[in-house]
Each structure stands twice: as structure tokens, then as C-alpha cells.
Specification:
This protein has a single domain, classed as Arc Repressor Mutant, subunit A, CATH 1.10.10. The longest helix has 13 residues. It has a two-stranded antiparallel sheet with strand order 1-6. A two-stranded antiparallel ribbon has the order 2-3. By secondary structure, the chain is of the alpha+beta class.
Length: about 110
């Protein structure tokens, strides 16, 4: 399976990767399709607050209960894999009562 390395995000858009294996620097990441979908959607809206509802609409199909904790669980898993603690985020910031936003270190995305 192909591995991907983090590169500037503007280079990712025309080359959407189909793999679930990526690299953050020298560290190997294995992301689920939903984790990558969340990361990609946040990257496409860098600097903007993205609500859980928007993530549900764009990453999941319509059969997901909007009151479930699925987005929180996937964001927590993605943070763990990125080594991004919620209390001192480098990448994914929680905006209480509103959603999530990519922070200053997120100028990079996955591409081979």
C-alpha cells in the first residue's frame, strides 16, 4: 500500500489520496476513511470554525444520528494519531459550542 507524506495543502486538492496510510514527518499514520474525511474537510476550511453538523453532512451519509458522539470520537482518534492533545492543540482546535478549527501548524496535508 502507498504511504503519503505531509505536504503543502494546496498541492493535495487535485490529488486526493485513496490510501489510508500517511506520514506526519517521519511518523507513520494509519487513518480510517472517516478520519481522513474529517481532516480533509477541516483543511478545505482552514481557519474557519467547522461545526459537527457540517462534518456529519460532508463526511458521513445521512443515516448517522446527529445527536450521536461519532464526530467527537473520530476527532479524538484523529488527534491521538496526530499527537495533538485537545488541551494544547497544534492542529485541531475545539471551539466550545461551535465546532473545530485547524490551527497554525496545519498548513500541511497528506499526499504521496
Amino acid at each position: 500500500m502507498t504511504s503519503y507524506v505531509l505536504t503543502p495543502f494546496h498541492q493535495l486538492l487535485p490529488h486526493y489520496p485513496k490510501s489510508t496510510k500517511y506520514r506526519l514527518g517521519r511518523r507513520r499514520l494509519e487513518l480510517t476513511a472517516k478520519e481522513f474525511g474529517c481532516l480533509e474537510y477541516l483543511l478545505r476550511h482552514k481557519g474557519e470554525i467547522v461545526s459537527q453538523e457540517a462534518l456529519l453532512e460532508h463526511v458521513w451519509d445521512g443515516s448517522v444520528n446527529p445527536f450521536s458522539a461519532t464526530v467527537r470520537m473520530h476527532i479524538a482518534s484523529l488527534r491521538r494519531k496526530l499527537g495533538d492533545p485537545a488541551d494544547a492543540p497544534q492542529y485541531i482546535e475545539t471551539v466550545t459550542g461551535q465546532g473545530y478549527r485547524l490551527g497554525r501548524e496545519s498548513d500541511y496535508a497528506c499526499e504521496n
